[in-house]
Amino acid sequence: MLSQNNAPPPPDNPHAGGVIPKVVPPLARPSPHARDLAWRTAFTWLRAGWRDLWTHPLPSLVYGLGVFLVSVAVVWFLFHLEFDYALLPALAGFMVVGPLIAGGLYEKSRRLEAGEPVGLVPMLFVRLRSGRAGVFMGVMLLGLFLLWMRAAVLIYALFFGMVAFPGTEEIVPMLLLTPTGWALLLVGSAVGALFAAFSFAISVFAFPMLLTERTDALSALGISMAMVWNNLGVMIAWGAIVVVLFVLCLLTAGLGLILVFPLLGHATWHCYRTIRSDDAAAREDDRMFIRPA
User: Which residues form a coiled coil (predicted)?
Assistant: First the structure.
């Protein structure tokens, strides 16, 4: 027979007397990506990038010249193929693929930090620790760029209808001197800012991560967003610096890219090294598919 035990529960039993214990929420843990950096740190990165630029400056300047010449070629092809309606979205979308193009500049800063010899050839043929994950990330960023281009065309059609593009000579007065143009600029700028903020967050640290760590592209993009979100103040300041310098490049008809693009590439490397510590790089729980070696 089963024994009948009518003894009172022990005093340390939380269920004594039929009382449901209180549910205590878990204590908040600090994010491993948070660094508590002042917004002025962004200018420290800029100074460090300037120092790397002028340490063996020729490869960096040739790299910037190459970016400028490719940009000129793209603009020429847009006009030659009568795709001039895509010029403004393409200029804005340059910031989407910019971190991908700057891979050689990250490599030069990495080599300077490690005391390795620098040169143009290693900058042009970068060897990623993550291997082909870089190709996958490039495809995703190009897909985001094409999505932005399609969104820009749709926004234009919503405001001006399904009409032929009037040409660059007439589009500027239409945008600046008509209420419809003002509305288009407002909506287009808002949508473009969302695309730019999202692409900046997922890509600003992703390529440096693929360069120095063995990881997969999706993890790199996700960790990059987490690093931006947990250091929002200083990253907003850094994003503002990038936008201001890019606008200055546009005002110089792109010539500023020869100097500004290498400067931002080198500075982004120091931004990455400040926020992504060596201990965090060795963690396994924030990767999706590939564990660090």
Answer: none
pLDDT computed for residue 140 by the predictor: 84
Q: What is the pLDDT of residue 42?
A: 93
Given a cut of 70, whether residue 91 has pLDDT beyond it is yes
Query: CA 257, CA 42: separation in Å to the nearest integer?
Result: 20
Residue 155 · residue 184 · CB < 8 Å: yes
Query: What is the residue type of 214?
Result: R
pLDDT above 70 for 10: no
Task: Report the phi/psi class of residue 55: left, alpha or beta, with left for phi > 0 and alpha for psi in -120 to 50.
Answer: beta
- Tokens read off for 239: 């994003």
Q: Quick one: angle between helices 179-203 and 133-160, nearest 10?
A: 170
On whether the CB atoms of residues 208 and 268 are closer than 8 A, the answer is yes
Q: Are 174 and 88 in contact (CB under 8 A)?
A: no
Q: Is-contact 94 71, C-beta < 8 A?
A: yes
Q: Classify burial at 215, counting beta carbons within 10 Å of its beta carbon; exposed 0-12, middle 13-18, buried 19 or more.
A: buried
Q: What angle do CA 155, 161, 166 make, to 5 degrees?
A: 90
Instruction: Give per-residue pLDDT as tens, 224-240.
Output: 998 999 898 999 999 99
pLDDT attached to residue 292: 47
- HSE (side-chain half, CA atoms, 13 Å) at 199: 26
The residue to which tokens 């050689």 are assigned: 104
Supply 214's token pair: 């063995």
Give me the amino acid identity at 276. R
